[in-house]
């Protein structure tokens, strides 16, 4: 593991701080994905097994992805704006920056002790105790280790939640961040009771009709550019309204574009909430986080996101030019097993929405 310079502690010290507290809230980022919710709910289950009072918060007062509703504790998630706080200890998982904790920022400020456990490299920190390891394939890998240091029971709920975060953030163990450490952790979680087949059915084989229809619209509009190296598409506000679709329904769409042979970078723009939100994925050495930073976003080398305050048509044109420039400037990395692994994936920062 390779903690960032912003890391000012280790997981053992964080475990000690959590053992010393009896009033803890755990928050993730806006538009929480499997790694975010898995990290929150796994840590909450571990702490409750030690007799701690714990609440899990949603950064925004909006529905979480229903595909993850099987996670133990999902039904008890509380929007931060409605939480009757503050709490003694505030823990942020899978989110390194204040801007991404939404309505929970005031609870962070009011806490006696604040903690960050994450795998997104950033230049600043927002907490008293910060542990960020970008080499970890998922934040749930760090939570899994933390639960062990706490001396908590990791069987059952903790294992299930941690495995869900790991399998989603590695794209079913297909992305470049799938390394030996990730596979060892998955094996440990399975041995502790995580049902891999059940998680696969629940997360990857339970899409809503609206999600599949959104994908059809996006594929119909898809543009292949730069000799097939770029696949991009977009979804309008009207598309979502016509189908009664949610932001979560759009999440799988980009994977269809990314899966096309020869594609190096995939991009999907979606018009929602008065802005245009972009998701980027790469499957070679192209740094899509650098593209996202041009638009005020960020993320991982192979998965990133951004938000534009532009009309959709203008955003489509602007992003298209940026993609072509980036692909032209980036050397094509080999996709063979001999290629060096790039630190990657989803969706936390890639969902800058």
Automatic annotation (TrEMBL):
<dbReference type="InterPro" id="IPR001667">
    <property type="entry name" value="DDH_dom"/>
</dbReference>
<feature type="domain" description="DHHA1">
    <location>
        <begin position="244"/>
        <end position="324"/>
    </location>
</feature>
<feature type="domain" description="DDH">
    <location>
        <begin position="24"/>
        <end position="165"/>
    </location>
</feature>
<dbReference type="InterPro" id="IPR038763">
    <property type="entry name" value="DHH_sf"/>
</dbReference>
<dbReference type="InterPro" id="IPR003156">
    <property type="entry name" value="DHHA1_dom"/>
</dbReference>
<feature type="compositionally biased region" description="Low complexity">
    <location>
        <begin position="329"/>
        <end position="345"/>
    </location>
</feature>
<protein>
    <submittedName>
        <fullName>DHH family phosphoesterase</fullName>
    </submittedName>
</protein>
<dbReference type="Pfam" id="PF02272">
    <property type="entry name" value="DHHA1"/>
</dbReference>
<feature type="region of interest" description="Disordered">
    <location>
        <begin position="329"/>
        <end position="353"/>
    </location>
</feature>
<dbReference type="GO" id="GO:0003676">
    <property type="term" value="F:nucleic acid binding"/>
</dbReference>
<dbReference type="Pfam" id="PF01368">
    <property type="entry name" value="DHH"/>
</dbReference>
<dbReference type="InterPro" id="IPR051319">
    <property type="entry name" value="Oligoribo/pAp-PDE_c-di-AMP_PDE"/>
</dbReference>
